[in-house]
Amino acid sequence: MDKMPKWADVVLIPLISLILAAAISALVILAIGEDPIAAVKLMVDGALGSTYGWGYTLYYATNFLFTGLAVSVAFHARMFNIGGEGQAMLGGLGAALVCLYIPWPHWSIALIAAAAGAAIFGAAWAAIPAYLQAKRGSHIVITTIMFNFIAAAVLNYVLVNLLRPAGSMDPATARFPEATHLPSLHDILAPLGIAFNKAGPANVSFLVAIAACFAVWLLIWHTKLGFEIRAFGKSEQGALYAGISPVKITMIAMLISGGLAGMMATNNVMGEAERLVLNSTEGAGFIGIAVALMGRSHPFGVFLAAILFGFLYQGGAELALWTKIPREMIVVIQALVILFTGALDNMVRMPLEKIFVTLRKGKA
Amino acid sequence: MTLMKSLMGAAAAMALTAGAALAEPALIFDLGGKFDKSFNEAAFNGAQRWAEETGETFREIELQSEAQREQALRRFAEVGANPIVMAGFAFADALGQVAADYPDTKFVIIDMVVDAPNVRSVVFNEHEGSYLVGMMAAQASKSGTVGFIGGMDIPLIRKFACGYAQGVMAANPDAKVIANMTGTTPAAWNDPVKGSELTKAQISQGADVVYAAAGGTGVGVLQTAADENILSIGVDSNQNHLHPGKVLTSMMKRVDNAVFAAFTDGVDMETGFNVMGLANGGVGYAMDDNNASLVNADMQSAVDAASAKIASGELAVHDYMSDDSCPALNF
After folding, report:
1. Mean pLDDT across the stretch A136-159?
2. Chain A, nearest residue to B323 by Cα
3. Is residue A49, in this structure, part of any structural domain at all?
4. At A200, is the secondary structure helix, strand, or coil?
5. What's the rounded Cα separation, in Å, for the pair B172 and B44?
6. What total number of domains does chain A contain?
7. In the UniProt record, does the keyword Amino-acid biosynthesis occur (chain A) (predicted)?
8. What pLDDT, in 10s, does the model give residues A87-100?
9. How far are the Cα atoms of A157, A344, B116, B181, B247 from residue B238, in angstroms, in the given order?
10. What structural domains does chain B harbor?
11. Which of B7, B59, B70, B93 should be substituted to probe chain A, the one whose Cβ sees the most A Cβ atoms within 10 Å?
């Protein structure tokens, strides 16, 4: 039974959730004695009002695109991959090893190789929880969460003890060689006569992320494998009856998911930092969950949600820079948006469904 | 898309010219947080003192993660903040990238050297100040065992430990120094719980004076030392007031003076390499009402004598970072 028109599901619910989150955030800002309207203006200006702001907004959005797609693919197979953070960290390690130890002639080849390296590391990190789920029934939510901690510890060990250059106090790898530096949006747009700020870290991997959106769309809705993933997600029993192997689909969906999360490293590690630092993922793996929920696990929805969260991240950074709003408060505001759009979906959905049902009854 | 981009470009240009008018100085705190009662807070106090004396304002930001360093630097440089001071060695790499892009902006980095024409690098002779508090620790200790708790295990913190151990040995050659580090990542700068556990472990090994060189982690060390009724030594800021009568002294690293000087010199500052040691008041030990009863005249005269000798160059304290080894302590 279709309770709501499609547009209400896709547009209206996220919109109402956003407005609610904004309203409560405004109250929070008021409560600490700051002006919410000025804060919003600052966020919009800082994140969207200049090509500098766009450079950062799109940079963050690229991170969220990869992790959002990763979570989406797992969602289609009805699996909750909370391990995007850990998979992206390991992806960073993969990308760093590829960039550091192989002399690349040109960035384009390095990008393909680093993306592959990052995807392999990320997928490998997702493979263990996937195997445990498929063969042993260990719940994927628990195992992927735990693997985030293990990934952080592994990275910590590797950076402090193995990859830190001699004489450096900072737990980070050396700079990647010049040839692996990715062109930023400034470099790409300059030949087209578009002036784009040089400082923004958004780079060519944004285009890779858009290509990944398209690829995920093709995979999920236009291939046999995508059909199997969706069938498995809708009903495991049904899928089994149709001759689809649950073990195979669980493994493949999680490998794709982990690979996508890992590929985030082409943006944050290879594109921006140009070396591997601790906490390079900055929580993008978790934001990916909210992005996937808000985007209804559809690549286009994920794209829009990723831009929104990119805006929130960059806007939040601007708030931290230009106001006395403490950084904890900014995390609260970001968390409210995640809470309303991600976790409290049904709070908006159920009353809205009722309204639509009564409207329909009224007509009939 | 193109139209939108150019519209945004225009908006950006306006926003930037509006921002460029203010040549405020800016200060970036490292991960321990602004109010760590120690290193970052010392930097903040220096900036605050400058603001009060001149009546002007400054920009500041507390970092949330390692990955934000370059963004914070670029953002301040982009809107024309000048000079930009960053508290912490970990900024070196990001600054190395950013400095060349903003040749007209002056940068000041504390605790690390970055070789660029528009950068002033301020480093401190922490081993000299630590030597003095080490002497005091050895004289105040009854058990003959004193402790050292470092933050992140890096050469800079080993430099503190090494100077401290040399001071202890100078005052009491039979003394034992126990040294522990809180961790190997920047999270170790802000882990008071672990600091507290390490303090308890050192007490169980007989330590009755502990020296914390660990940023925000030191708050836990000083708290536990006060709870367990032993003496502690603070670091960077004057921390004597945190537990009056329980904190023997504090190794003052005048980060506040470095920040104050940078803000006062402003855009016309001399760049290059600045060493702040005992001779120019960059380091020292803290005396005030809170610890007056703990430090007797003998201790103070011995320490002052050593201080004068170090300042004049008569006594050389070994610097761990000069050869990555320490004659008085094994790590």
Report:
1. 93
2. A167
3. no
4. coil
5. 37
6. 1
7. no
8. 999 999 999 999 99
9. 34, 48, 32, 22, 10
10. 2-124 (3.40.50.2300), 126-252+283-323 (3.40.50.2300)
11. B93
Contact of A213 with A64, CB cutoff 8 Å: no
**Residue A149 lies in domain:** 63-298
- pTM of the entire predicted model: 0.82
Residue A128 belongs to some domain of the structure: yes
By Cβ distance, the residue of A49, A278, A321 closest to B66 is A278
**With contact defined as beta carbons under 8 Å apart, do B310 and B126 qualify?**
no
Determine whether the interchain pair A277/B74 forms a contact, defined as Cβ–Cβ distance below 8 Å: no
Task: Write out chain B residues lying below 8 Å of A210, CB-based.
Answer: none
- Do B284 and B278 contact (CB within 8 A), yes or no? yes
Instruction: Out of B67, B68, B156, name the one closest to residue A169 (CB).
Output: B156
* Interface contact B156, partner A, CB < 8 A: yes
Query: Which phi-psi region, left, alpha or beta, contains residue B266 (left: φ > 0; alpha: ψ -120 to 50)?
Result: left
Q: Is residue A102 part of a domain?
A: yes
Q: What is the ipTM of this complex?
A: 0.70
Q: How far is the C-alpha of A7 from the C-alpha of B295, rounded, in Å?
A: 76
Give strand pairing partners of B109.
B86, B121
Token representation of residue A246? 């649950």
Residue A236 belongs to a domain: yes
Measured between alpha carbons, how far is A310 from B272 in angstroms, rounded to an integer?
Answer: 38
**A269 pLDDT band (50/70/90 cuts)?**
very high
